[in-house]
Amino acid sequence: MMTGTGNHVANLGDLIKVYLGSHLKYHKDEHESYRELLVVREAVKNNYIKKEKALFEQKEKMFRNKDFTKWKFVGSQDELVRR
After folding, report:
1. Structural domains in the chain (count)
2. Is the same domain home to 68 and 45?
3. DSSP H/E element including 81
């Protein structure tokens, strides 16, 4: 009885390797483009964070200097001074 069960489990393992293995290989190949897209997306995200940080630093520096002419504000300077 144990020999029959052992053979069944061994045969089942081979069937899983043959049929499920080929499916997983297809699945892996199918998602390769997704992984490439994810790398590009992460690069864009990191670039955005870097640019945003630089912009905030520039804004903070300009705010501390209080030179309103460098702010490139379109409108009357009185609006800036009142705030």
Report:
1. 2
2. yes
3. helix 77-82
Find how far residue 2's CA is from the centre of its chain. Answer: 51
pTM of the model: 0.54
Q: Which domain holds residue 24?
A: 1-30
Q: Are 30 and 37 in contact (CB under 8 A)?
A: no
Q: Are residues 23 and 52 in the same domain?
A: no
43 and 56 together in one domain: yes
Tens-digit pLDDT profile for residues 49-81: 999 999 999 889 888 887 777 777 676 766 656
Q: pLDDT (tens digit, 9 = 90+) per residue, 12-42?
A: 877 787 777 777 777 788 888 889 999 999 9
CB neighbourhood size of 58 (10 A): 11
